[in-house]
Model the fold of this input.
Amino acid sequence: MSFGAGHRGRRALSDINVTPLVDVMLVLLIIFMITAPALFQQLEVNIPKSTVGQAEAAEGLVVTLKGDEIFIDKEKVSLKDFDVRFAAARVRLGERAVTLQGDEQVTYGRVVEVLARIKGAGVDKMGLAVELVKEKPKSR
Done:
């Protein structure tokens, strides 16, 4: 404990030392900055490009088609198990919108097949993910 000099009576200084508090807060900030990007990782998919559409996927369930693989959020499922796993994911997440994103190399028939299964599960709010690009100016 520190005592002030030059006073007749001895009195304790009651200043708060904020240095440990600042140190802890900086450590927590660094931990948050490192872990936050890991929470938002998605599957790497080359989605088709378009000049119109929605730039970002809405919050909700994301179904991804990559090659012959199907993912519900980040969980790989087979086509025969898709209906059951999709229904379970819908129960878990509620009536949120569903976003279908497919790799450019996925065949149209595969996209339609999965789209039909999603619609057959009673989904009303659905979107297709595209990568927005600026429209190229027309040359004269």
